[in-house]
Each structure stands twice: as C-alpha cells, then as structure tokens.
Amino acid sequence: MSTNPTSDVNDALYATSPGLEGAAINPTADLQADLGLDSMDSINLVAAIRERTGIEIPDHELAHLRTVAQIVAYLRDHGAPS
C-alpha cells in the first residue's frame, strides 16, 4: 500500500483512462461528467485502486463516490494512510 491515497487514485485513473494521461486531475472533478468515465472505466478504476491500496470498494459504495476527493476519503476511512 502506498502512503499517498491521492497519488494512488490519480495513478489508477491514468492507468485505466488513457485519455487522461498527462492531464491535471482536479480532486473535485466529477468522474463521469467532468472526466468522462463510463461504467466499464469505473470497474477498471476500482480494480486498479485495489491493486495499489489493497482496499476493496464495493459496487454499492462506488455509486456514491463521484470525485477523486470522495474516493480518497473512502480509502482513508477504510485504512489508507492519512
């Protein structure tokens, strides 16, 4: 597990969404509306986050996590370093 959940989420986004490579990701940007992630991208994002952090995000939780900041808060609430 990394010591920086924000970097983990950003790295996972870059790995699963090639269109975002090199782009600055605003932590409050909506993953779907602003970053263009679809349902398959979201599934891949969750898998990539799990690989990086060891923390599983259940599908029913993912529906409520709309931004990088919300995902980071979830990870911290579930064991990622602050």
TrEMBL record:
<feature type="domain" description="Carrier">
    <location>
        <begin position="1"/>
        <end position="79"/>
    </location>
</feature>
<keyword id="KW-0597">Phosphoprotein</keyword>
<keyword id="KW-0443">Lipid metabolism</keyword>
<keyword id="KW-0275">Fatty acid biosynthesis</keyword>
<dbReference type="InterPro" id="IPR006162">
    <property type="entry name" value="Ppantetheine_attach_site"/>
</dbReference>
<protein>
    <submittedName>
        <fullName>Unannotated protein</fullName>
    </submittedName>
</protein>
<dbReference type="Pfam" id="PF00550">
    <property type="entry name" value="PP-binding"/>
</dbReference>
<dbReference type="GO" id="GO:0000036">
    <property type="term" value="F:acyl carrier activity"/>
</dbReference>
<dbReference type="InterPro" id="IPR036736">
    <property type="entry name" value="ACP-like_sf"/>
</dbReference>
<keyword id="KW-0444">Lipid biosynthesis</keyword>
<keyword id="KW-0276">Fatty acid metabolism</keyword>
<dbReference type="InterPro" id="IPR009081">
    <property type="entry name" value="PP-bd_ACP"/>
</dbReference>
<keyword id="KW-0596">Phosphopantetheine</keyword>
<dbReference type="GO" id="GO:0000035">
    <property type="term" value="F:acyl binding"/>
</dbReference>
<dbReference type="InterPro" id="IPR003231">
    <property type="entry name" value="ACP"/>
</dbReference>
